[in-house]
Specification:
The structure holds two protein chains of two kinds. Chain A is of the alpha+beta class. Chain A folds into three domains: about 15-55 and about 70-120; about 135-245, PmbA/TldD superfamily (PmbA/TldD fold, 2-Layer Sandwich), CATH 3.30.2290.10; about 250-480, no CATH class. Helix content of chain A is about 20%, strand content about 40%. Chain A is built from nine helices and 23 strands. Chain A has helices spanning about 25-35, 95-105, 140-155, 225-240, 265-270, 275-280, 340-345, 380-385, 435-440, and strands at about 45-60, 60-80, 85-90, 120, 160-180, 185-190, 190-200, 205-215, 250-255, 300-305, 325-330, 330-335, 355, 365, 370, 390-400, 405-420, 420-435, 440-445, 450, 455-460, 465-470, 475-480. Chain B is α+β, with helices and mostly antiparallel strands. In chain B, strand 5 (about 185-200) and strand 6 (about 210-215) form a beta hairpin. In chain B, about 20% of the residues lie in helices and about 35% in strands. In chain B, the strands form three sheets. A six-stranded antiparallel beta sheet of chain B has the order 3-2-1-4-5-6. A five-stranded mixed β-barrel of chain B has the order 7-12-13-14-16. A four-stranded antiparallel beta sheet of chain B has the order 10-9-8-11, with no helix packed on it. Chain B is globular and about 70 Å long. Classes of the chains: A alpha+beta, B alpha+beta. At the A-B interface, strand 1, strand 2, strand 3, helix 3 and strand 5 of A face strand 2, strand 3, helix 2, strand 4 and strand 12 of B. Strand 3 of chain A pairs parallel with strand 2 of chain B.
Chain lengths: ~475, ~450
């Protein structure tokens, strides 16, 4: 999409990796890091990003809109203890980089530290999103029929369907982070997301719903099976709303279906385990490492390594290895999610959770793919066990207060459970609980773990990052259901 | 970026060059084959200082820029944006975008706005740029950040405070819009924000948090750090001992700061795109009573120093005030050019500016005294509103109101209902518009709301 020229004014410096095409050289990086350390920072890093996005949209029967975006920029960070100085720019020239570096450097106020004498590119990164059909090579005339076909199939699936919209997004590009230890990590980060939205009418009533799928993958992601599922789920989730009502209001047992119900973990424990909140003592989980927070069959992980998952990363945005982090092991709180600052603060190894939305932001401890491991119960057994409660199937959004621990998730589709059976559909209900209390009350966990394929995005401190989540079928003995009557 | 107007006279060399970049991009689009185009560019300077428990936590400082283009090519439409403004990269980017546009289906409703709607911009001085912006320096930002913390920690009961995080930020932004059918506009604005978040220790082990913030176009209109820090400390300490109340149907007051959340989900379905896609519970309701007679709100883009003020909107349409709800009846939708054409409706504007409420004459305390029993919502947590049906369900925290007085703090509760019923039960409107949001919501009191708790 953008210029491919390598090298610019400045003589015979060697370009580095992906960013050579923008004239970025080893020497520029070394000079920038030296400037960032010029006032005595303990650590510095420079983060380059190029992200090319493309969207095709369908509305009213035609693929008649496209959006394209290019984000190209660089951020420079200096760290002194727990303190951060940060500057960023869209101008990748050395003078602009040095200005950012001097801005960042001012967080410290002492004698200069020397920068790295040698830079070395990490060659040990995994390949968690191998591409068969990279988006750079996929022509619009291959994508258009896919989008158009979904429209036709959604209309054909149910005569009550009156409006359909489809968006297909793909991203390609790279990030490169170099730090004051001389380490450089570069990662090519593809992403795709497909959203099908359906509006249906039935006897003068209208309902709207949809389904979306996302992953770090190329065009091969859209297998016939996946596309079938997108149509079937989007239409079914809309159609059932005509039969659905509000559940009762008040405290009830809540059963969470396998899959996207992982939103429970994201809100009830994931955010609270991000180490910045604990380092600052503002999380309800502060000082609780090593303590029992759930029954022994509860195991929760945050995992960078699910191949092709939206929340997968090969390396975090600080250049640290990213693997599988155990949040809860046999019911006991095991490990916070760390970035470099918090790992240093706690004297532990980083967990590869330092992530950022873009070059405009310094990294923060963030989740990747958060899920609960399978447990000893069976799905049928769990549903049968509930006299009167709610079975939650899919969700639109959630939120948490980190310190008070209160969290919510919004249920778009679910069922009422009466006498151990799913009796009638429910919709549009917010469920609210308190993190540690809700974990304590997870009293049944099934063996049917599913990682959701949806396009989840997590927001924190104004930064959005892609994440995944998953859950086996789980029973929470009691939560407040925001229903009516 | 922030919506703001330039006074032509203050445009410096920098904004002339931004104007040049924008004009060149629009020309480039035509040269490469677009029939018409709109180009918008921005540049902004941001500085933010975050402070925590006695020391600077983070300083971010940057000048950022970007360019967007709407391209109309052979009856087809594409919209693109880039931060890579190198001339050769931009040329390639526009070429690629035009190739992309040509692969799409034609759309007869796509074209630039009717130029007649560009005309008649207000001459009012919106006063959105503080001329003293350049005088704000690092030591003053630090002094304010420190003062915010000190004020929070000076509140009675502050021994329970675990942590105070404060922030001081400001920005100077400029934007230029050029449309090839005869529009050129530029605007500059400043904004200044301070805020504090305070976490306190609840004896039961919870660590409830609350915040306060204040912001304005001009430094002189921002509250003092002492006032904001004190409010943050008081708000946080008031959360200690919160508990879940009983489920029931109650009178619910929503404080001015929180009320924007309720109003946002009433206004979203007013967008022409929602109407045209039949995803609006307000479709076909012009002239119909949606709320009680107290629901009376205009959109006013011409408020001097307003956070949402502008002389032209994102498409270049001259901005004018218009009523949205009058005496409870719906008077206008938010109609942009494209969906307006699809619906056969005249454009108003695609996006809200400032809201102007017909205020009541009672203070929040007087409203609580009059309501007697119920709850006061001071914050929402998650939840959502279904724009197609009007159903909503939202997590809340706040206080019980007993005998007209604030009583114990409550949390982990929920309110639910349908907007078409809720606004008819709007029983009182406060005299206290929230100044730190363009929605400027006052305290709102609703009767007969379903509340879920124990």
């Amino acid at each position: 999409m953008t210029g491919q020229e390598a090298g610019r004014a400045g003589g015979p410096r060697e370009g580095i990796g992906y960013f050579a095409r923008f004239g970025v050289t080893e020497r520029m990086i070394a000079e920038t890091l030296a400037a960032a350390l010029s006032r005595g920072a303990d650590h510095a890093d420079v983060f380059f990003q190029h992200r090319v996005g493309s969207d095709l949209g369908l509305e009213d029967g035609a693929v008649n809109r496209a959006y394209a975006s290019v984000e190209l920029g660089v951020g420079v960070r200096a760290v002194k203890g727990d303190q951060t100085g940060y500057g960023y720019t869209e101008d990748l020239s050395l003078p602009a980089l040095l200005e950012c570096a001097r801005t960042a450097a001012a967080i410290a106020d002492g004698p200069a530290r020397s920068g790295p004498t040698r830079l070395h590119i990490r060659a040990d990164l995994p390949d968690r999103y191998p591409l068969v059909r990279p988006w750079e090579d996929v022509r619009p005339d291959e994508k258009l029929p896919l989008v158009a076909a979904l429209n036709e199939r959604a209309f054909a699936a149910d005569p009550r369907v009156k409006k359909v919209s489809v968006f297909l997004r793909d991203e390609s590009g790279a990030v490169l982070v170099a730090d004051s230890s001389g380490r450089i990590a570069e990662d090519l980060q593809p992403m795709t997301l497909l959203y099908l939205s359906v509006l249906a009418e039935d006897g003068g009533r209208r309902e709207q719903n949809g389904y979306n799928v996302a992953g770090r993958a190329g065009f091969e992601f859209y297998t016939p099976e996946r596309l079938d599922r997108v149509v079937k789920e989007a239409v079914a989730r809309t159609a059932i709303l005509f039969e659905a009502g509000a559940p009762p209001a008040g405290e009830l047992p809540v059963v969470l279906a396998a899959g996207s119900s992982g939103i429970l973990l994201h809100e009830a424990i994931g955010h609270g385990m991000e180490a910045d909140f604990n380092r600052k003592g503002v999380s309800i989980y502060a000082d609780k490492i090593g303590k029992a927070v759930a029954r022994p069959f509860v195991n929760i992980v945050d995992d960078a390594a699910n191949p092709g998952a939206r929340g997968a990363i090969n390396v975090d945005d600080e250049g640290n290895a990213a693997g599988t982090t155990r949040l809860v092991e046999n019911g006991v709180l095991a490990t916070y999610l760390h970035d470099g600052i918090s790992a240093h603060h706690y004297g532990v190894a980083p967990t590869g959770n330092g992530r950022r939305e873009s070059y405009r932001y310094p990294p923060l401890p963030r989740m990747r793919s958060t899920y609960m491991l399978p447990g000893p119960h069976a799905k049928d057994e769990i549903i049968r066990s509930v006299k009167r409660g709610i079975y939650c199937v899919n969700f639109s959004n959630g939120q948490v207060n980190i310190g008070a621990g209160d969290f919510t998730f919004y249920v778009k589709n679910g069922w009422l459970i009466e006498d151990g059976k799913l009796t009638r559909p429910v919709k549009d209900v917010n469920i609210i609980g308190n993190g540690p209390k809700a974990l304590e009350q997870v009293d049944m966990v099934s063996d049917d773990l599913a990682i959701d394929e949806g396009g989840w995005t997590c927001g924190k401190d104004g930064q959005s990052v892609p994440v995944s989540q998953g859950l086996p079928t789980v029973r929470v003995a009691k939560m407040t259901v925001g229903g009516r009557g | 970026m922030g919506s703001a107007e330039a006074k032509g006279a203050v445009a410096d060399a920098g904004s002339r060059s931004l104007l040049e970049v924008t004009r060149r991009a629009a020309d480039l689009a035509l040269k490469k084959g677009a029939r018409e185009a709109a180009a918008g560019a921005y540049r902004a300077r941001h500085v933010e200082v975050a402070w925590r428990d006695g020391q600077v936590e983070k300083v971010t400082e940057a000048t950022t820029r970007g360019l967007g283009l709407d391209l109309y090519v052979d009856g087809r439409y594409t919209s693109v944006s880039t931060s890579d403004l190198r001339p050769e990269a931009l040329e390639r980017f526009v070429e690629d975008a035009i190739v992309l546009a040509r692969t799409l289906a034609p759309d007869p409703h796509r074209s630039l706005p009717d130029p007649a709607l560009y005309r008649g911009q207000s001459k009012v001085d919106l006063d959105l740029e503080d001329p003293t912006h350049g005088a704000l320096d690092a030591s003053e930002r630090r002094r304010q950040a420190e003062a915010l913390e000190a004020a929070a920690r000076a509140v009675p009961g502050a021994g329970a405070i675990l942590s105070v995080t404060t922030s001081v930020s400001d920005s100077l932004g400029e934007g230029v819009l050029v449309a090839t059918n005869g529009f050129e506009g530029s605007r500059r604005s400043t904004d200044f924000w301070i805020g504090a978040e305070v976490t306190v220790k609840d004896p039961d082990g919870r660590r409830p948090e609350e915040y306060a913030s204040s912001g304005a176009r001009h430094r002189a209109d921002v509250e003092s750090p002492e006032e904001v820090g004190r409010r943050a400390g008081e708000r946080a300490l008031s959360r200690i001992g919160s508990r879940k109340g009983e489920s029931g149907v109650l009178t619910v007051a929503v404080d001015a700061r929180a009320a924007g959340r309720m109003v946002g989900s009433l206004f979203g379905p007013l967008a022409a795109a929602s109407l045209q896609q039949r995803r609006s519970f307000l479709e076909g309701k012009l002239g119909v009573a949606i709320g009680s007679p107290l629901l009376d709100v205009s959109d006013d883009p011409l408020v001097p120093r307003g956070l949402g003020s502008r002389r032209y909107d994102g498409e270049g349409l001259a901005a004018r005030p218009f009523p949205v709800f009058e005496g409870g009846a719906l008077r206008s939708y938010y109609v942009d050019t494209y969906y307006g054409r699809k619906l056969g409706m005249a454009p108003t504007t695609g996006r809200a500016s400032n809201l102007a409420w017909r205020l009541g004459d009672r203070s929040p305390a007087e409203l609580l005294a009059a309501m007697g029993e119920g709850i006061l919502v001071t914050g929402f947590l998650g939840g959502n509103s279904n724009g197609t049906t009007g159903d909503f369900s939202l997590g809340v925290r706040g206080f019980r109101v007993r005998g007209g007085q604030l009583a114990e703090p409550i949390g982990e509760m929920n309110v639910s209902g349908n907007h078409l019923e809720l606004w008819k039960r709007l029983a009182a409107v406060g005299n206290d518009p929230y100044r730190y949001s363009a929605m400027r919501t006052p305290t709102l009191v609703f009767e007969g709301v379903q509340v879920a708790g124990t």
